[in-house]
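Late entry, written up from scratch paper. The run itself happened at the end of the previous shift, but nothing got recorded in the book at the time, so transcribing now.
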Amino acid sequence: MSEKIDNFTSNLRDKLNDIDSRMSSVKATIESASEETQETIKSKLSAVKANLETKQHEFVAYRTKLQELGLEKQAEVKSKVEGWKTKRETEHLNHRADRAENYAASGIAVAMAAIDEAEEAILEAIAARLDADNADKAVTASSAH
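Output as recorded:
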């Protein structure tokens, strides 16, 4: 394989490993939720929200880039690409490869953003359930008296 392909696949592999780590972290949060206090859940939620706020502009940029690259990809006519291959028009082929690599990298970045947003939603759901459970316990306790 070429050095460019090796670098590209290595970079994607690293990003996929990051996604795997994030998913493991989210899974651990879910598994430990029933054992954690409401304060701990709210603290985690605050940290996730702060992280999302600092990265929000980055996420929007990646989503926009992904959409733009997707439109470019659709506009590329297969026969045009075949012509570039036949004529060995390396400038066009390299530009196409760069766009395809950017599209893949942007897709991974959007996936990471979706994981962060999912973690926020999960923590909000757990916090809401804890609020409801605490209210139910308070009503039951006051009814018993």
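The chain has a mean pLDDT of 88.
(Scratch paper discarded after transcription.)
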